[in-house]
Amino acid sequence: MVEIVVYGTPAPAGSKTVGFAKGGRHFVRDSSGKRGSDWRRNVAQEAGVAMTGRPLLDGPLTLEVVFTVPRPKGHFGVKGVRPSAPTHPTVAPDTTKLLRAIEDAMEGIVYRNDAQIVEQVARKVYGEPASARILIDKLAKEGASD
User: What class is the 2-14+28-138 domain?
Assistant: First the structure.
């Protein structure tokens, strides 16, 4: 099992646009911007530290990620968190795009291809410090199936 903790506010992977520029050159544009690319670079860096001296994971993998995001200031009153404040972060960015950024950043560092991930669990919670806690492991062998 590989455990990686990345501190900072999780950023989503942006939508990708594919097309042709003038002159017929093919391009792929990622709309995640600087914040998204900085986040993926931080994830890749921490993944590299965790994988030092270890080979890439092979075969089917499981991935579990807990994204911790800070509460907005409006959730707090004089006595702490307001009773009316939501219990979970149900606002953008969505968990799927946050997860995709993690998967993309670890490709070639933890595993060859993110297609190896066959089972995943992702949660978004309020807390401090802002971070992503990543657990990745080989899929436990199950009984033969057809």
Answer: alpha beta
